[in-house]
Amino acid sequence: MNGQTDTSVPGQTIAVAAEALYLANLLLLPGFSFALLLWLFFRHRRNGAPLARCHLRQTVAASLWAGVILVIVNVLILATGGYQSANVWMYVIIYFTVGHSSLILLGMVGLAKAMAGRAWRYPIIGMQCDE
Amino acid sequence: MQFQSQAVAKPYFIAAIGLFIGQILFGLIIGTQYVIGDFLFPEIPFNVARMVHTNLLIVWLLFGFMGAAYYLVPEEAERELFSPKLAIALFWIFLVAGALTIVGYLAVPYATLAAVTGNDLLPTMGREFLEQPTITKMGIVVVALAFLFNIGMTIIAGRKTVINIVLLTGLTGLAVLFLFSFYNPINLVLDKMFWWWVVHLWVEGVWELIMGAILAFVLIRLTGVDREVIEKWLYVIIAMALITGIIGTGHHYYWIGTPEYWQWWGSIFSALEPIPFFMMTVFAFTMVNRRRKEHPNKAATLWALGTAVMAFLGAGVWGFLHTLAPVNFYTHGSQITAAHGHMAFYGAYVLVVITMISYAWPHLQHNAPASNGRAQLLEMWSFWLMTVSIVFITLFLTGAGILQVYLQRVSDTPLPFMVVQDKIALFYWLRLWTGVIFFVGLCLYVYSFFAKGKETLASS
């Protein structure tokens, strides 16, 4: 699909892999994809190219936030009547439509940026990239 | 404008926007009737206003698609349109037929309309979205065939690109599948099954091809990215759209009397339906990130990116939300469906038509690549007003849907439909006022066409 790879930036492959694993963690293989992403992060966090480090930092941070949000949703459910109460529907659907889909959108934009060889900091939940 | 015959797109775009305004006005009427039941009754009953709202949507989108095709195909085929006169003639036929149909809906009872238009001879009326009198449906077929002939002859005689072939495939599919609106079996299960061949296979099948082709055309022009790159994306997107969308029809077959295996087929394939929309979003952002030029039409770029994102959210996320059979068992036909319908249509099809208009209009009107800065600013404001409004409309309807499903279907002491409607009225009020803001955004969009700027327009 990439017809312009001749102009690829150092670290681009890892940046794309990071974004793809982040999205896979949200959409296809939760847990396993995150483990791979963490492995990639620890492998390249010091010596990787700036572009790779930037995307790795965003995706790991966003994945951790995704986990935190899941914990918050579950705590809210438990605090307001448990998993058999009517509130479950409200929390789950609001999480899915607002939280989960926003995290996916961030990943899609991040993937597009990585494929174009550009650094990008996720708004609000992202971490600073190297200059 | 590279070819004079592209100008025939202009009346189509004007009619599309005019009918869009009508659609939203009727949306506001039914939004009000949700909370003030006798509003405009008996002059405009709810069922009639809703029919006008949905039919106007379909008709204006068809006008938009046709206008887009008339603008896009000559440029892609690198030749003048086969017959501009035929295109103009079809415009007037379609417009008059459409207007008469709407007047018919409003002026006489639906049963009378069916009687006077000869529905007894070939009964096709009375089904949601396909309420048009049989004679109007025949007119649509004639217009569609003549339109395809015009577009097809232009492509056959000119350059064949992936974009115009995909567009032609989508438009042909649109015309062919509409023929199932004439098949109206007495068996209600068969009736519903084939009804979805029109409704579902349009919006989750061939219309996606049209959308992909239009988006690809605009992105090539706006970004200057190599055609080969965009065409490869387009191939994969339309393949995924058809692979998932065709068997995904099964998500409409869960509870209508069809065999149980449809619950598996429908769930699995329609769960994959967000994939093409996901790819479209990555595609649009990737192309804009890789752009080789700064196109002066910033508004068109915003509409294009908005199309991809909102289509993913509306069709992808909100579609997935209630597409699995065990979930749909509870949510079927509730306000969750309405939430999905509003955002999906807006994201996928309203925005793609406006994207095309936003790109083409400066060429058609001023022979320039972009409107003046003030007009573009107004367009962008209208984008945000309409888009944020539709997001909130969707969220309010989702809230209404959650409550409705729980109180009416999940609770140990389920309440009757109308009792539940009273309990969720707050959401309907919120939806109505958000709809008013949407209408303000639309007015701003229309006003942007007349906005004068200080700077001189650069010639294309």
Task: Give your account of this protein's structure.
The complex is a heterodimer of chains A (131) and B (460). Chain A is an all-alpha fold and 131 residues long. Chain A contains 4 helices and no strands. In chain A, α1 packs parallel to α3, α2 runs antiparallel to α3 and α3 packs antiparallel against α4 (87-115). The longest helix of chain A has 30 residues, at 50-79. Chain B has helices at residues 9-35, 46-77, 84-107, 110-116, 134-157, 162-178, 188-223, 227-247, 261-271, 274-289, 298-321, 325-331, 335-366, 373-410, 417-423, 425-448. In chain B, α5 (134-157) packs antiparallel against α6 (162-178), α7 (188-223) packs antiparallel against α8 and α14 (373-410) runs antiparallel to α16. The interface between A and B is medium-sized, with 22 and 29 residues.
Number of helical regions of chain B = 16
Give the helix/strand class of chain B: mainly alpha
Series of H and E elements of chain A: HHHH
User: In total, how many beta strands of chain A?
Assistant: 0
Keywords:
heterodimer, A: 131 residues, mainly alpha, 4 helices, disordered N terminus, B: 460 residues, Cytochrome C Oxidase, Chain A, 2 domains, 16 helices
Topology:
The complex is a heterodimer of chains A (131) and B (460).
Chain A: H1 12-27, H2 32-44, H3 50-79, H4 87-115
Helix pairs in contact in A: 1-2, 1-3, 1-4, 2-3, 3-4
Chain B: H1 9-35, H2 46-77, H3 84-107, H4 110-116, H5 134-157, H6 162-178, H7 188-223, H8 227-247, H9 261-271, H10 274-289, H11 298-321, H12 325-331, H13 335-366, H14 373-410, H15 417-423, H16 425-448
Helix pairs in contact in B: 1-2, 1-16, 2-3, 2-5, 2-13, 3-5, 5-6, 6-7, 7-8, 7-10, 7-13, 8-9, 8-10, 10-11, 11-13, 11-14, 13-14, 14-16
